[in-house]
């Protein structure tokens, strides 16, 4: 039996700086840039365990590509959560599904004091001219992309009281302005859309009031609209303010609410309408675009929110456990009014979906979605293959290797390409047989392996990252 759960959901890997990783195969000669990834650097502090895949202390990973070579470095984000864990050997801050052992008084104070984790480990982005490690908490952590040193914090609005955000900001066509959703918890709560631009104050563009806010890990954006998909996994904000249990365990699945789409005009901030649909859950929106009088929203959907529970570490350590399958759905919202309806674009299991954002967001011409997936012949365990789904034809291409567990596939387009999928896929793969990880480079068209660069250690299962072509990454 594979020791995949211990390798992928276990303890800290050492911090390293390696000038050159051993490479098998050949890297494209145009690949000059850096893949930055974020994720948990450990699921254990001293004798204590975190409880959920979305817990843990943030670690950044950096793969830089030069002519025929790859360098690597990894580093824990130097946050208060990390420093206190180092100093005391105990978990000191509240995570997604883990609360440290505290007095009731401590619990009541949780949202009013920075006892929520600052270990921003879910994703990263270049936002307002700086590199930020992103979390759903309001504390986003700036870092130096060259050294991976922590340099400071960033907030959407002043104060940390009762706000949560997403780790999936959208960028406008010029890649100049970023947009994100912030949920502010209060007696009447609000979903708020903010814009962030270098050298400007963050601007609130729109808000929608709600009594029972939903857990939303991402939102949609088309050429003219923001789309808030209000999954019926909702919270009584009072329970969050009391914080009697870890963050996500305050939310309840209420399928009778259905899943309404709230559509906001991107240019005016005005509410365009609410489009009801049957209940479903998703972490990730994929693409969204307008087609005639319809708004098309692609996302990786689940019939309910049981996927959240499937990611508890005790479940992931169970070799018999099977993950619920996320699937690529295309919802059509009639802008003239009416219910949203969907078609299934593929039967394949999908999660951590990526597509060619630079070129195809807000454009109906896009076709390809890349994702981690579960092989239907080997359903027990964790994500064990990569898929490429053609949203137009439903064709699925697969990369699979025995006892290998790939992470989020990041698409990097080749320069001057014409075909949408002319480029490579980069994915950090845990090789449970070898007990180490490697960076896999796939040809995005054929989905065949081009190269792999082997690391000396296993990398815990992470979430999101991105590729940055420009070097140096920061102006000097
Ligand atoms: Co995500």
Describe this protein's structure.
The protein has about 475 residues and is mostly beta strands. It has a single domain, classed as Methylamine Dehydrogenase, Chain H. Helix content is about 10%, strand content about 40%. The chain has seven helices and 36 strands. Strands 2, 31, 32, 33, 34 and 35 form a six-stranded antiparallel sheet that branches. The chain has a five-stranded antiparallel sheet with strand order 1-7-6-3-36, with no helix packed on it. β15 and β16 form a beta hairpin. The radius of gyration is 21 Å and the shape is globular. The N and C termini lie far apart (about 50 Å). The structure holds cobalt (II) ion.
Computed CA radius of gyration, to the nearest angstrom: 21 Å
Backbone shape: globular
* Ends apart, CA distance between termini: 50 Å
**CATH fold name, please?**
Methylamine Dehydrogenase, Chain H
**Distinct ligands:** cobalt (II) ion
Largest sheet: 6 strands, antiparallel
Averaged pLDDT: 91
Q: Tell me the number of strands.
A: 36
Low-confidence stretches: 103-114
Output the structural class: mainly beta
In CATH terms, what is the architecture?
7 Propeller
Number of domains: 1
Which CATH top level class fits?
Mainly Beta
Short description:
The chain has 476 residues and is mainly beta. Helices cover 8% and strands 41% of the residues.
Summary keywords:
41% strand; binds cobalt (II) ion; 476 residues; 36 strands; five-stranded antiparallel beta sheet; mainly beta; 7 helices; six-stranded antiparallel beta sheet
């Amino acid at each position: 039996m594979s020791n995949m759960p211990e390798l992928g959901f276990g303890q800290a890997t050492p911090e390293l700086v390696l000038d050159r990783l051993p490479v098998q195969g050949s890297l494209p000669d145009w690949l000059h840039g850096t893949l930055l990834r974020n994720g948990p650097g450990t699921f254990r502090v001293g004798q204590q365990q975190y409880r959920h895949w979305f817990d843990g202390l943030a670690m950044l990973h950096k793969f830089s590509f030069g002519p025929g070579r790859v360098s690597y470095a990894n580093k824990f984000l130097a946050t208060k959560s990390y420093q206190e864990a180092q100093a005391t050997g105990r978990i000191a801050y509240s995570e997604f599904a883990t609360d440290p052992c505290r007095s009731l008084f401590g619990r009541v104070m949780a949202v009013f004091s920075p006892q929520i984790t600052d270990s921003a480990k879910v994703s990263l982005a270049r936002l307002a001219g700086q590199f930020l490690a992103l979390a759903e908490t309001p504390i986003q952590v700036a870092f130096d992309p060259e050294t991976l040193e922590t340099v400071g914090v960033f907030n959407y609005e002043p104060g940390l009281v009762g706000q949560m955000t997403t780790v999936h900001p959208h960028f406008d066509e010029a890649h100049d302005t970023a947009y994100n959703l912030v949920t502010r918890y209060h007696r009447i709560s609000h979903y708020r859309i903010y814009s962030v631009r270098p050298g400007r104050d963050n601007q609130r563009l729109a808000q929608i009031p709600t009594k029972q806010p939903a857990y939303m890990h991402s939102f949609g954006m088309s050429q003219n609209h923001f789309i808030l998909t209000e999954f019926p996994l909702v919270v009584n904000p009072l329970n969050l303010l009391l914080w009697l249990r870890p963050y996500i365990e305050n939310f309840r699945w209420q399928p009778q609410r259905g899943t309404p789409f709230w559509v906001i005009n991107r240019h005016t901030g005005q509410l365009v309408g609410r489009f009801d649909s049957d209940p479903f859950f998703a972490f990730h929106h994929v693409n969204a675009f307008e087609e005639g009088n319809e708004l098309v929203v692609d996302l990786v959907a689940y019939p309910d929110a049981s996927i959240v529970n499937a990611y508890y570490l005790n479940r992931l350590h169970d070799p018999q456990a099977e993950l619920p399958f996320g699937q690529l759905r295309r919802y059509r919202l009639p802008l003239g009014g009416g219910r949203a309806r969907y078609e299934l674009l593929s039967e394949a299991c999908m999660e951590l979906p990526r597509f060619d954002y630079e070129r195809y967001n807000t454009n109906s011409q896009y076709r390809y979605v890349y994702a981690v997936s579960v092989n239907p012949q080997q359903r027990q365990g964790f994500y064990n293959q990569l898929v490429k789904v053609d949203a137009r034809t439903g064709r699925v291409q697969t990369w699979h290797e025995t006892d290998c567990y790939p992470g989020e596939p990041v698409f990097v387009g080749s320069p001057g390409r014409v075909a949408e999928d002319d480029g490579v896929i980069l994915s950090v793969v845990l090789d449970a047989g070898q007990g180490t990880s490697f960076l896999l480079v796939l040809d995005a068209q054929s989905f065949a392996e081009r190269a792999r660069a082997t690391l000396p250690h296993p990398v815990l299962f992470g979430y999101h990252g991105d590729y940055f072509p420009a070097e140096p990454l920061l102006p000097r």
